Request: fold
Amino acid sequence: QVQLVESGGGLVQPGGSLRLSCAASGFTSDYYAIGWFRQAPGKEREGVSCISRRDGHTYYADSVKGQFTISEDNAKNTVYLQMNNLKPEDTAVYYCAALYPYSVLVPTCMLPMDRYTSWGQGNKVTVSS
Reply:
């Protein structure tokens, strides 16, 4: 059974940085992807970034390109989301999720949330002065 445990949220001032972590377990192969989603108050959940475990390819929503970086530590089975130059509009609950199984033949893992099969508990990120 796939389990995802998130950490790293909190309060940060505009222009600051935070790193979210998603520790994953329960996979029996490396044909999966980990995605980060966020849901701001009163808005729908949106995909932010994802990474393919098999080939390491990364993908980003246009709104966070150049601002967020997704990475992985395979030895720790952990995926990170480094968020820089944070703005008040980045305030949201951030979730990591697993797309499993995931074929590298699929052009991108930036897929609708209903394609993702397992979810972390969510971490609140508040950007405010």
About this structure: The mean pLDDT is 95. The chain has no helices and eleven strands. The two ends are 40 Å apart (CA to CA). Residues 72 and 84 are 17 Å apart (CA to CA).
